[in-house]
Each structure stands twice: as C-alpha cells, then as structure tokens.
Design a protein that fits this description.
This protein has 8 helices and 14 strands. It has 311 residues and is an alpha+beta fold. α5 crosses α8. The radius of gyration is 21 Å and the shape is globular. It starts with a strand and ends with a helix.
Amino acid sequence: MTTREVEHEITIDAPAAAVYRLLAEVTNWPRIFPPTIYVDQVGENGNHERIRIWATANGEAKNWTSHRELDPEALRITFRQEVTTPPVAAMGGTWIIETLAENSSRVRLLHDYRAIDDDPEGLAWIDEAVDKNSRSELAALKQNVELAHATEEVTFSFTDTVIVQGSPKDLFDFINEANLWSERLPHVAVVRLTEDTPGLQTLEMDTRAKDGSVHTTKSYRVTFPNHKIAYKQITLPALMTLHTGIWTFEETPEGTAASSQHTVTLNTDNIAKILGPEATVADAREYVHTALSTNSTATLNHAKTYAESKG
C-alpha cells in the first residue's frame, strides 16, 4: 500500500495561541475555510473529539468523520478520518503551530493518505484535492486570523423564529423539499436541487427581489431529518463575503419553533458601490439583515401555513 505524505505551510501575523484557538473550535470552520460547509461535533472526551465534516473537494461535496486529538500545550492538533469517502482509503495529518515572534507564527499542515486499491487515478484525485484544499485553508486561515479584529464589526448573526401549531416533520419537509419552492414561494422563480448523497444537497435557485430583478444563488445544504438543515451559500451577492445559515425545528410548550439563523460577513469594499458613497458599515448591516430576514421570514410563514394545514 502506497502512503503519500505532503506538507503545506504559511506564515501568519498573529500570536500562535490565537491561531490554535481558531483551529481548535470547529464551529468556526465554515466561516474560516471556503471548502467547509458544516461541522458537527459528534463526541468529546477530554482532548479527544469526533467531528463530522461536510466540505467540497475538487468542486464535489463530500462528508467524513474524523477523530481529533488536541494538544493546547504543544499547539498541535492531530486528525484521522474514521469514515472516508471514495477514492480515499485512509487520511490523516497534523496541524502544527509554531511561534516565530510575539505576533507572528508559522502554521504547518501535514497530510498522509492512501487511495483505494492504490488506484493511480484515485491517488491523483486526492493529490489535487489535498493540495487545493490545503492552500485554500491556509490562505483563508491567514486572512481570517489577521483580520479577526477588523471583521468583528462586519461579521454578525441573527435569527428569525415563528411558532407553528404543526409538527417539526412537516416544517422540515417544507424546507427540505426545496425543489418545490418555485410552486410554493412567490419570491422563488426557478429551482435546481440535487441530492446525489443522502442528506447532502446542492441547491441553485433564482429569486426575485422587490424591484423585480432576479438573482441566482447556489448553496450546499446538510440535512438532519425533522431537526435541522444547515447550509453555506457559495455564490454571494456583492455585499457579502460569507453567508451560512441553519433552519431548525424544535418542539416547545407553545408549539413548534421554526427558526432561520444567518451568519454574514460584509464585503466592505463594495458598500459604496452598492449603497452610495455616504453609506456606512451600519447601513450595509441593516440592508443585508433586512433582505435576508424578509426572505427567510416569508419562507417560514409559508412553511407554517403548510404545516398547520396538515393539522
């Protein structure tokens, strides 16, 4: 069996401990790493944890389960995929963060992997995916850590919730069956939904804005039946550099709480171009918040009508 070992590295203008912390907290990953769609922490025992990751590799959405061992003293994180996705037979590696100076660190990302049956084409595919994703992850890590303070003002989250006298399953079905949204939602013109792997969807849709213009968006979605649907938008409007979200359906004494949570990072370079030379970051926040909230609240209210009609 042929095991390939590769290493990528980058220098970051930030303290090593801050870099380690960002890598250790997996909930940050969809925000930091372009290929990462969603991360779920499956189990935790001291410095050992199991995480399930949904991410793109060479433009294809994949998912796998990894075991991680965190070493905050040595600033190292080792990882090993428990359940791999073809053509990968085995995959593991280590993040090593080294202090260069008070506000400077070197991050090394090591990988070792094998292809199923030592297939040369499979190995070439993995070579390309690891190289592309490692470069992308390290560049994004550098950018995000270095901009951490600057982006606090331009990254924000909010949630819209409606209470429904209906079941979580019916609400989940409405959001899950996005292929029917052009019939069910007035603001959706055209939908293309594919689900080659159960629970992992690609959603492309054309939505109508208030002014009549049509915008095309593409998202990857991860579904957890009757409970939640997490997504990451990969074609972004000019005012955003990041948009992730989670639909959740939770039973409460008042009824089922159906919620739509959004996390957004604004593209400050485009604020003046889109909203005018006097526009501020606060104006852009309000504009984006209103636009997203209007659509998701409309969708939640249609889902409410659907679920309550099932009675």
